[in-house]
Design brief:
- With 104 residues, the chain is mainly alpha-helical.
- Helices cover 66% and strands 0% of the residues.
- It is built from seven helices and no strands.
- The protein starts with 9 loop residues before the first helix and ends with a helix.
């Protein structure tokens, strides 16, 4: 939380939520996406896996991690370690090298 942000107490949260129109917010979001105003963020782990053409389970096996760990990286819930980040960078920039190693 930034220093400019103020934590809301429970009554302030309730007042904020009472004013919201979730349906209207969803419809506006759909309109924005159709108009091209949305932005899709793809993780470096997803880019690396897609560059190799492997499935999540195949790529996780290649990296020596669980599918759940890979999914966490792809969804941004977890961050890969330094070594894993380096391997993902290699896979993104030179997927053939990673695939060659996995073929052994």
């Amino acid at each position: 939380m930034s220093s400019k942000s103020k934590k809301l107490n429970s009554s302030e949260i309730a007042a904020f939520e009472a004013k919201r129109d979730i349906g209207a917010e969803i419809l506006q979001s759909l309109k924005d996406m159709k108009a091209g105003k949305g932005k899709v963020v793809v993780s470096s782990a997803t880019e690396a896996r897609e560059a190799t053409g492997l499935s999540q389970s195949q790529f996780a096996n290649l990296l020596g991690v669980s599918v759940r760990t890979l999914q966490g990286w792809e969804q941004g819930r977890k961050q890969p370690s330094g070594a894993a980040r380096t391997l993902l960078a290699v896979a993104r920039t030179n997927p053939k090298a990673v695939l060659a190693v996995s073929a052994r």
